[in-house]
């Protein structure tokens, strides 16, 4: 996952050291990488492999607590509640740093907006022997610098990437719901008790949203609240939005600027509504991210209208229950899976 080299650009000394490393002769590789560093103390590649070797030759520190270190503000992040929920049970100590200085022998770091300037923080922790699990948020357009990944034992990130999916040690998890949306003790309202057949609140200017609205407006009992943009002043409050979704049977979930995924999908599931999501030709994003799921998935919004029109009230009720039960089970499995990955990676 964390490293790739073009052998054509390597010196013969580096190729020799790498062959020792690849064959498991770590003592021989260690000697040769040290020789390379004597000639060039700034050779980051040699230093990186040397630290990997030291990880193999030096026993890990005794078992200790896992620290959750926030390099973002969980109080203002939309993902704050969700991240704490899915990582509950993975850590014993919580630190809000936001200065890229705090480290621990075993740490889960929550970060976003990764740039080259943040890499020294991860590199320094790695060289000190820290085991790092990185939670990488908010990289919807896949523009962040992922060089820090090489210093992490494992990476959890939002937004499934077909490029990153071929790498080992990178795990994708859903965006989840925005902070303040969840109602842990709330019961799912039956579809028959919901006022609106469908609803949409948000910005209509992105991606496929205009075709979605044109199609969905042909259905009865809809509710529409359009805003100027994401998080704009005319947006519904979290409480008002939750009340709207609690009162909606279907929630169309068109993509954003560059990705099909949105908080809207998981907020609909959390409130017991039925999200309708999109797929691209030859690429079913949500199956790639979530595995098998019951969420209605359409190739066009006219198809969504046909789907809604074709469901009797009884079938809609059954689908609402199926989606909600699947989501509750998925959250339980996700927490278990993340905990197991963290335990293995930071051992």
Give the terminus-to-terminus CA distance.
Answer: 18 Å
Structural class: alpha/beta
Report the radius of gyration as a whole number of Å: 24 Å
Order of helices and strands: HHHEHEEHEEEEHEHEHEHEHH
Mean pLDDT: 93
- Percent of residues in helical segments? 25-40%
CATH top-level class of the largest domain: Alpha Beta
Q: Going across the biggest sheet, name each strand in turn.
A: 2-1-3-4-5-6
Categorize the overall geometry.
elongated
Number of strands: 11
Total helices: the number is: 11
CATH topology of the largest domain: Rossmann fold
Largest sheet: 6 strands, parallel
Strand content range: 15-25%
Supply the CATH superfamily name of the largest domain: Glycogen Phosphorylase B
Number of domains: 3
- Model regions low in confidence, pLDDT < 50 over at least 5 residues: none
CATH architecture of the largest domain: 3-Layer(aba) Sandwich
